[in-house]
Amino acid sequence: xxxxxxxxxxxxxxxxxxxxxxxxxxxxxxxxxxxxxxxxxxxxxxxxxxxxxxxxxxxxxxxxxxxxxxxxxxxxxxxxxxxxxxxxxxxxxxxxxxxxxxxxxxxxxxxxxxxxxxxxxxxxxxxxxxxxxxxxxxxxxxxxxxxxxxxxxxxxxxxxxxxxxxxxxxxxxxxxxxxxxxxxxxxxxxxxxxxxxxxxxxxxxxxxxxxxxxxxxxxxxxxxxxxxxxxxxxxxxxxxxxxxxxxxxxxxxxxxxxxxxxxxxxxxxxxxxxxxxxxxxxxxxxxxxxxxxxxxxxxxxxxxxxxxxxxxxxxxxxxxxxxxxxxxxxxxxxxxxxxxxxxxxxxxxxxxxxxxxxxxxxxxxxxxxxxxxxxxxxxxxxxxxxxxxxxx
Length: 392
Known about the structure:
Layout: H1 3-13, E1 25-29, E2 32-35, E3 40-43, H2 46-49, H3 58-68, H4 81-94, E4 98-102, H5 105-124, E5 130-134, H6 143-148, E6 165-168, H7 173-179, E7 184-189, E8 192-193, E9 199-200, H8 203-216, E10 219-224, E11 247-250, E12 261-265, H9 286-299, H10 302-319, E13 325-331, E14 334-339, H11 343-352, E15 355-356, E16 358-360, E17 363-366, H12 374-391
Parallel strand pairs: 3-15, 5-6, 5-7, 7-10, 10-11
Antiparallel strand pairs: 1-2, 2-3, 4-12, 8-9, 11-12, 13-14, 14-17, 16-17
Helix pairs in contact: 3-9, 4-9, 10-12
């Protein structure tokens, strides 16, 4: 089928819940993707941070294929060696005690919400169930995680929304304190608000939030769905600030291209969730876990993560030289570019010129593969520079 036929089938048969760019991708290798007609694109979006080692990394593909040829699915009634190995790698790397495997960031955050509320219910009884999140946050698209998301634009259509969430301004510790009451059981935040505009939270703010949570026995939940798995130049973004969360959620890049969601809890929470308190059919799928094991083996390395930081700084330095760029928000390879003009129009024009780049509110957003080369970075930025010079 040609691109036109594929697009027509999409329009006729798939719910229009996404604002698609006018491109149809059929294969990829490394940082490059190709459409049905063979046109090449350099992808610095990585499927919104999912393809952490790019398209079809040979080691990842081999790990997934080998597992697929062994056993493709195991009910959670039975033990899975690949899931057990992944859980051990995650707990050792983070200092967490136990993990729950799901299929997405939203599922991981749903689990975190349930853990926080059950911990508080078990210890204090009914009524201590509210969670403070931040304005401009994004925690998922289920009813509960939409409710947790601190953006009013998402609080529409699907009434009634789940109760129990309060919203505070980011980096405003007094504002956060004003939202905490005797009914608060958790504070949930992203160390970098990806969908909210690549807003980086201050280290001092994070440390003060941690202190408040410890003093009041409130659980600190860090949503690392987009910032995790090496994206910020640390294995997890909270590690830059030296804080110790009670709960960490992870997804996207951890799977390397297959659906995964993980909720990790500290030692004091390891027994909060028992049989039948939570579950999901496809969680800890062995094929997905095999891919995630390879990702962890690759990225949980100091030299690898140092390179992520260096490449991020290199991109920032060179993007700031481009005409029409006002500022750059960057942590590792999580990059927001404030531009003159309309970011959506620039991203669309970049796509036409062979560069896949996405947006976050009024910013351009780059989430390139963690193993992107400097030569590939230069190629991507040359396209961005050309487009910016034409449009701005």
